[in-house]
Amino acid sequence: MTIKNAVTWLLRIVAAVILLQTLYFKFTGHPESVALFTKLGVEPWGRIGTGVIELVAGILLLLPATVFIGAFLGIGLMSGAILSHLTIIGISSGDDGGQLFIMAILVWVICLILLLLFLPQGKSLLQSMKPIISKKG
Questions:
Q1: What is the pLDDT of residue 137?
Q2: What is the CB neighbour count within 10 angstroms for residue 96?
Q3: For the whole prediction, is pTM greater than 0.70?
Q4: Range of the domain at 120
Q5: What is the pLDDT of residues 71-112, one digit of tens each?
Q6: Contact 11, 107 (CB under 8 A)
Q7: Per-residue pLDDT reduced to its tens digit, 106-119
Q8: How many angstroms separate the CA atoms of 61 and 66, rounded?
Q9: Residue 30 contacts residue 24 (beta carbons within 8 Å)
Q10: Which of 105, 110, 20 is nearest to 58 (CA)?
Q11: Which one-letter DSSP state was computed for residue 64?
């Protein structure tokens, strides 16, 4: 295993673990999670929908063939989370001292790095979709 390979696996695991560990709170209707999504005005469908997309992104980050897609989803999810913290929730949610905000930034940065490292995978994916897209047009 090369150093680059080891680093990309470490980044993928860290981002996936952060994304996946929050699912317990979203899917069980934990009071803090319900309060957060209520503040956003999207409870319960926003909480459950976000959880489903985070589950998909976390899995895609761990599968070698889909890292680019998982990173792309991760950036989208975390952009929404960061923006929500900056505009509605506040840096600190409840008594977390900004922990959710910091984790969102960490996952966003990791996913950006992964997106750049796996850019050839993304380009290859787009090339493979060209015949499908051109048939519909």
A1: 56
A2: 14
A3: yes
A4: 3-136
A5: 999 999 999 999 999 999 999 998 899 999 999 999 999 999
A6: no
A7: 999 999 999 999 99
A8: 6
A9: yes
A10: 20
A11: G
